[in-house]
Amino acid sequence: MTYDITKPTAPTMPNLGKGTECIKILLSQASKDMHEPLVPMFFPSLGAHISGAEFQYPDLTWKEMCGLMANLVADSGCNKGQLSYLVDAICHDFSEHDEAELKKLVEWQKQGTPWLQIPYYDRSGRLTGVQNRNLIRGALPRFRFPSGSKCGIYNLPVLNLLKPGEPLFITEGCSDCWAMLSAGHKAIAIPSATLLTKQDIEMLSSLPSQPGGDGGGYHMFPDRDAPGERLFLQLQKVLPTLQHHQLPPDCKDFSDYYLTHLRKPP
């Protein structure tokens, strides 16, 4: 379909062919005079249901073609009276999920569960997600993630602060990262030994072989368990110069090591 923007009239609505049956069903619930303006408004809401469909950017990274944010775009057209309830029908699964999550949140709040909110930012400092950590030892769930949060590698903005010759430490979990920062080192964290995603690997692969230039390098104190060692081996495939540092036998992770060996008494 071509459209001459110099003309004052809008293009004629295209005929809906094979594969657009859902659009026809939606239009059957609206008056005929609203068919033309409603059709383009349906697609953001429908597109919000697409997941796992990716395309390659010029920088060779893979990104999802659309997501839940598209639903917000469709909502901007709600001044069209007949659109609102049709968008609600398209996105009823989102609404049901949100209601269920809200009920869980209310129940957790009734229990008086204290949560630590941990923000995740991308390298440019843009907030990408929030991780809620249960502060009651042994309580479940241990972590909660608000809908839409993407919690990949933690503390990425620190990469922009590396000085020449300064090493970068990679830890498992935010608490180990905080301990490493408290010890005076620049550090990032993988949320969990089992949560190294494809996007995280792509980001790590784009890092220079020697952070901070000559004299720097990547360093890691793996947790003293099998998952910690597996995570180190995974990361070493992406960062061949990653150096392994062994924790003492009495320390299960770097946080433990910092508290028992490095922290200065008050």
Short overview:
This protein is an alpha/beta fold and 266 residues long. It is built from nine helices and nine strands. Helix 2 (35-47) packs parallel to helix 4 (83-90) and helix 6 packs parallel to helix 9 (254-262).
Structure explained in plain terms:
The protein is an alpha/beta fold. Helix content is 35%, strand content 14%. The protein contains nine helices and nine strands. It has helices at residues 21-27, 35-47, 69-75, 83-90, 92-110, 174-182, 198-205, 226-238, 254-262, and strands at residues 54-56, 62-64, 115-121, 127-134, 143-144, 168-172, 186-190, 218-220, 243-244. Strand 6, helix 6 and strand 7 form a beta-alpha-beta unit. Helix 2 (35-47) runs antiparallel to helix 3 and helix 6 (174-182) runs parallel beside helix 9. It is elongated and about 75 Å long.
Unreliable stretches = 67-79
SSE string, helices as H and strands as E = HHEEHHHEEEEHEHEHEH
Shape: elongated
Count of separate DSSP helical elements: 9
Give the end-to-end Cα distance, rounded to a whole number of Å.
Answer: 73 Å
**What is the rounded Rg?**
25 Å
Oligomeric state of this protein:
single chain
Portion of residues in beta strands equals 5-15%
**Strand count:** 9
The average pLDDT is 80
Structural class computed from helices and strand pairing:
alpha/beta
Instruction: State the helicity in percent bands.
Output: 25-40%
The biggest sheet, with number of strands, parallel, antiparallel or mixed sense and barrel status, is: 4 strands, parallel
Strand order of the largest sheet: 7-6-8-9
